[in-house]
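Async update (no meeting this week)

Hi team, since we skipped the sync, here's where things stand on the single-chain job. The sequence we agreed to prioritize is pasted below, unchanged from the tracker. I ran it this morning and attached the output directly underneath so nobody has to dig for it. Comments welcome in thread, and please keep replies under the output.
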Amino acid sequence: MNIENIKFHLLNTTWKSISIIPFPVMYILSDIMFYPLYYLIKYRRKIVRKNLVESFPEKSTKEIIRIEKDFYRFFVDIIFETCKFATISEKEMRKRIVYENLEDINALFQQGKSISLYMSHYCTWEWVPSMALHLDKNALAASIYHKLRNKTVDRLMYQNRKRFGGLCVEMKETLRWVNEQLKNNNVTLVGYIADQSPSKKYVHYFLDFLNHSTPVFVGAEKITKKYKLEAFYLDIKQVKRGYYEARFVKLHDNPAELPDFELTNLYYAQLEETIRRQPKLYLWSHNRFKYAKTTR
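Output:
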């Protein structure tokens, strides 16, 4: 066994040991972990505060700090919930995240239509691959992902996300994979975590998002329009701790006919509305606005 396999085995064992902790105990541990993370380690506190202050200039310092603390509490929950995905049962998973209006999505599959699904680092994105449990049996559900620098963690996350029948496609392989599936007449749902910050060499478009002129990826739009795919946004909300509801929102009836960048605009408008509804659930620790400028 080589070093990489040993590291993977150790991490996988630790991960699964955490995943078998019952939900009530898990959330007690999460409540405890919040304090050292927020007050002692101060994990990315400067980035989180900067993102919140710039995104919500209308809010008082007291309101910002409240959202900040709520975010860190949820952030710890997400770490535990991501681990939990490794062993959670199908029955429990179906209770924990409920997908509304699935009949609309499955009806499109039955008509032979494929779908681009816009998502984000919001709420329970690591549980979303469980969607494959609910989709038409003839449809392929794939998540587009960017390889992590840590090979061991990347391997574990890749394994985790495929548990319930979903596929993982590396970002650079997206166009080839979509083209191959459509060429073979396979109906697909391709999920894009589309709110990431592109590196400078890939910046082609800026839009207004959370009080920032923000550079954005437009690859999902190009693929959607090129292959005349349906375009939906996954609007997720937390019902209560550990329970979520997701609703499919159609972005446009005919995205292929939209002017350049308009589909991306529609997605970000939906995402901002979602974030403002429950701001603590967005990944504020990500340096999303490193190439952005505030608009006021």
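Quick observations from my side:
The chain has one domain: 3-294.
The chain has ten helices and ten strands.
Reply here if anything looks off.
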